């Protein structure tokens, strides 16, 4: 009968910790609907891979095969970017291009965290940890893999968890940095029409510009913009819808559970994991602060003031961040509709975060 | 490892990174204004015809 209980003797307390983490991720996904498409597969996977002698991992385990086929070579994040690109409407930012400045400013957290993380980690790990601040899972995965970071599992968990926690992280930071008077500032909501030609040429131009200035970002930007070009061209509606729904969903299923294959107790239960998660939080906070403070700085020179809260939407957690700012505006004044501006800034944050990832790779690869 | 001096040493990357991102985004903003300007004119001409 020994064969029935022999496995129990190989359970370690670290595995127990991972089961609790897995259960917590599943709980957050179901109870609070926090990024359920990723946190639920990750939570389940965390339990799956932390059973003694789990057949899901190891040299010929299916999750190891999936990891080598789709994560180690960055294929899954890149394919997911086609779907994300097909989902994004760049209209708000095309009708008001200066909103893109906030997308740039809100990458401050990435570079600040890079300095902070370099105190504790070698520069490749520090850069990979900093990119958690991109608030963009595929970019974080892609950069961490290219920089050969040992902290990849913690980075992936932190990146996706914080994206889900945007509604909890951003409001206190925004409130701390703005006055009530500033939060009440109303902005003009008349949208200019954007020609179809502009919508079609925009993704192509972005790809070329990003490719010339940050060549290492061109795969990420290119796949994102390819998805958007399918959406805007007007002749690939069926493909665009497939990319937005079926393709994105399929990749998401495999992405979550494959990421979990890296959450093995012996690698994950370390004090350094907590440090990575803490630094990721710093990156999010300083991104938010960077966007808000930049808007306040611009207001010193502008006659028509900007509501500084929209600067916070420059982190690329799309569309959560844009919605958070819009809701905060409505809470202060039920007639203050910031959605068009906040979503415009949020979309520009998506572009800026990918470019920031490319710059990081340019610096440290 | 615990090397507080690295924070100061790497501030250079922070400056370069933020400069780089503003330059690239600035070029994209300029290109977008240009596209809007060109195609607004073409659309206006089409409407007049």
Shape of chain A: globular
How many domain units of chain A?
1
Distance between the termini of chain B: 71 Å
Mean pLDDT of chain A: 91
The helix/strand class of chain B is mainly alpha
User: What is the share of helical residues of chain A?
Assistant: over 70%
End-to-end separation of chain A? 54 Å
Number of helices of chain B: 2
Indicate the low-confidence ranges of chain B by residue numbers. Answer: none
Number of H- or I-type helical stretches of chain A: 20
Rg of chain A, please? 21 Å
Strand-pairing-aware structural class of chain A: mainly alpha
Q: Which percent band covers the strand fraction of chain A? A: under 5%
How many β-strand runs of chain A?
0
Order of helices and strands of chain A: HHHHHHHHHHHHHHHHHHHH
Averaged pLDDT of chain B = 92
Biggest sheet character of chain A:
none
The percent of residues in helical segments of chain B reads over 70%
Per DSSP E runs of 2 or more residues, the count of β-strands of chain B stands at 0
Task: Note the quaternary state here.
Answer: heterodimer
| Proportion of residues in extended strands of chain B | under 5%
């Amino acid at each position: 009968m020994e064969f029935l209980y022999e496995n129990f003797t190989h359970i370690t307390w670290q595995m127990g910790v991972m089961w609790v983490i897995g259960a917590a991720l599943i709980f957050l996904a179901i109870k609070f609907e926090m990024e359920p498409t990723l946190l639920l597969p990750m939570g389940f996977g965390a339990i799956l891979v932390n059973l003694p002698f789990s057949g899901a991992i190891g040299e010929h385990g299916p999750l190891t095969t999936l990891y080598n086929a789709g994560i180690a070579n960055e294929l899954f994040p890149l394919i997911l970017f086609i779907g994300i690109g097909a989902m994004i409407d760049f209209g708000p930012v095309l009708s008001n291009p200066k909103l893109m400045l906030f997308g740039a400013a809100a990458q401050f957290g990435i570079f600040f965290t890079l300095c902070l993380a370099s105190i504790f980690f070698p520069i490749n790990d520090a850069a990979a940890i900093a990119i958690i601040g991109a608030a963009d899972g595929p970019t974080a995965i892609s950069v961490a893999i290219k920089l050969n970071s040992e902290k990849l599992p913690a980075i992936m968990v932190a990146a996706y968890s914080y994206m889900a926690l945007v509604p909890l992280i951003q409001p206190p930071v925004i409130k701390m940095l703005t006055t009530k008077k500033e939060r009440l500032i109303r902005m003009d909501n008349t949208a200019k029409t954007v020609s179809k030609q502009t919508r079609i040429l925009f993704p192509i131009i972005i790809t070329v510009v990003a490719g010339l200035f940050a060549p290492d970002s061109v795969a990420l930007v290119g796949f994102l913009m390819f998805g958007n070009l399918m959406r805007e061209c007007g002749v690939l509606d069926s493909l665009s819808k497939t990319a937005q729904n079926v393709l994105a969903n399929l990749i998401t299923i495999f992405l979550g559970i494959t990421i979990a294959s890296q959450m093995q107790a012996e690698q994950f239960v370390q004090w350094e994991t907590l440090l990575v998660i803490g630094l990721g939080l710093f990156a999010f906070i300083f991104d938010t602060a960077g966007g808000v403070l930049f808007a306040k700085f611009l207001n010193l020179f502008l006659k028509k003031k900007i509501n500084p809260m929209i600067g916070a939407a420059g982190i690329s957690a799309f569309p959560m961040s844009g919605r958070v700012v819009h809701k905060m505006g409505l809470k202060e004044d039920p007639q203050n509709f910031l959605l068009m501006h906040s979503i415009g800034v949020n979309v520009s944050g998506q572009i800026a975060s990918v470019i920031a990832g490319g710059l990081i790779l340019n610096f440290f690869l | 490892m615990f090397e507080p001096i690295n924070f100061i040493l790497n501030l250079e990357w922070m400056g370069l990174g933020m400069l780089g991102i503003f330059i690239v985004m600035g070029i994209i903003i300029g290109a977008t204004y240009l596209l809007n300007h060109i195609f607004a004119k073409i659309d206006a001409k089409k409407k007049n015809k």
